Amino acid sequence: QVQLVESGGGLVQAGGSLRLSCAASGSIFSINAMGWYRQAPGKQRELVATITSGGTTNYADSVKGRFTISRDNAKNTVYLQMNSLKPEDTAVYYCNAEAAAYYSGPYYPNWGQGTQVTVSS
Questions:
Q1: How confident is the model at residue 28 (pLDDT cuts 50, 70, 90)?
Q2: Mean per-residue pLDDT for 11-32?
Q3: pLDDT at position 47, please?
Q4: C-beta neighbour count of 35 within 10 angstroms
Q5: Half-sphere exposure of residue 111, counting CA atoms within 13 Å on the CB side?
Q6: Backbone dihedral angles phi then psi of residue 54, each to the nearest 5 degrees
Q7: CA torsion angle 60 61 67 73 (round to 10)
Q8: How far apart are CA 105 and CA 84, in angstroms?
């Protein structure tokens, strides 16, 4: 079983910055991709950014140039630096990690509990 614990959410004014962190623990042999998703009220959960174990990143068009995803493989931790925040970035942000529990085992997606980010205008 894998646990993902997110931190760093909060209330910030438009134009401000926040840094989210997500640490994975538990039955982990290796982690493939890690990422951040968000869900605003009344909307579906959407991809924000992902990063592979090798460091390849992918971003939603709406956050390109403003958000940066990074990870520390030794700590099984992924980060999301969010700059130039806009009110439309307001959402619950969820961490995701594809983890295998043993050598050559299957990778399963795991989700954190979510952290609220609110951007005031």
A1: very high
A2: 96
A3: 98
A4: 23
A5: 10
A6: -90, -5
A7: 40
A8: 40
Across 1-105, the runs of DSSP E, i.e. the strands, are 2-7, 10-13, 18-26, 30-39, 46-51, 57-59, 67-72, 77-82, 91-100
Kindly report the average pLDDT of the chain as a whole number.
96
Alpha carbons 108 and 39: distance in angstroms, whole number: 21
Question: How many helices and strands in the chain, by DSSP H and E?
Answer: 0, 11
Residue 66 amino acid letter: R
CA distance 49 to 96: 10
Taking the C-alpha atoms of residue 32 and residue 107, their distance in angstroms, rounded to an integer, is 8
Cβ count within 10 A of residue 119 = 20
